[in-house]
């Protein structure tokens, strides 16, 4: 493991423990060159998941893309980084528990929207407005009415 500070390959593990999600290992490391400490996380590599996009193109699942969409929806909302990270973890559990090697991007979008509605209603509307591609104000208002009726 390379040191993120000095790029030395001479690092060692000084502490290991399960991470908060119990699905990964948190390792505390020490660089023997510069003496700085840093943390790494080790996760089990799963079967690569292929996402089928709206245009039927296929690409490998990318957690960063999912996280970026949720971050945009939660921008300037009272949602912490830890909540977003946990949210992404929960969505991934839903996705990977399906045990399919391919999943429609629309299915991922539905999973995210269902969970976002409980996390933050404004973030939900933001995500839905992009995901559902509202064409006019009336379709946007219809979605808002659904939220207000619940």
Short descriptors:
elongated; three-stranded mixed beta sheet; three-stranded antiparallel beta sheet; 2 domains; 6 strands; alpha+beta
Describe the structure in your own words.
The chain is an alpha+beta fold. It contains five helices and six strands, in the order E-E-E-E-E-H-H-E-H-H-H. Helix content is 45%, strand content 21%. The chain is elongated and about 60 Å long. It has two domains: 11-43; 50-149. Strand 4 (50-52) and strand 5 form a beta hairpin. The strands form two sheets. Strands 1-2-3 form a three-stranded antiparallel β-sheet, with no helix packed on it.
The total of helices stands at 5
State the end-to-end distance.
Answer: 50 Å
Order of strands, widest sheet: 1-2-3
- Which structural class fits the helix and strand makeup? alpha+beta
Give unreliable regions as ranges.
none
This entry's quaternary arrangement is single chain
Q: Average pLDDT, to the nearest integer? A: 88
Query: Over all CA atoms, what is the radius of gyration?
Result: 19 Å
Helix content: 40-55%
Largest sheet: 3 strands, antiparallel
Number of domains: 2
Strand content: 15-25%
Let me know the number of strands. 6
Summarize it.
By secondary structure, this protein is α+β, with helices and mostly antiparallel strands.
Strand and helix map with partners:
Elements: E1 11-18, E2 24-31, E3 37-43, E4 50-52, E5 58-60, H1 63-73, H2 81-97, E6 102-104, H3 105-119, H4 121-131, H5 137-149
Parallel strand pairs: 4-6
Antiparallel strand pairs: 1-2, 2-3, 4-5
């Amino acid at each position: 493991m390379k040191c993120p500070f000095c790029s030395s390959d001479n690092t060692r593990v000084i502490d290991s423990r399960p991470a908060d999600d119990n699905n990964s290992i948190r390792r505390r490391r020490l660089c023997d060159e510069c003496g700085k400490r840093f943390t790494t996380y080790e996760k089990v590599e799963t079967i690569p998941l292929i996402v089928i996009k709206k245009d039927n193109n296929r690409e490998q699942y990318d957690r960063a893309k999912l996280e970026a969409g949720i971050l945009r929806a939660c921008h300037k909302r009272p949602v912490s980084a830890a909540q977003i990270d946990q949210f992404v973890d929960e969505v991934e559990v839903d996705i990977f528990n399906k045990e399919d090697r391919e999943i429609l991007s629309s299915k991922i979008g539905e999973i995210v929207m269902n969970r976002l509605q409980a996390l933050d209603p404004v973030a939900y509307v933001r995500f839905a407005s992009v995901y559902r591609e509202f064409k006019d104000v009336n379709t946007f208002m219809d979605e808002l009415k659904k939220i207000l009726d619940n």
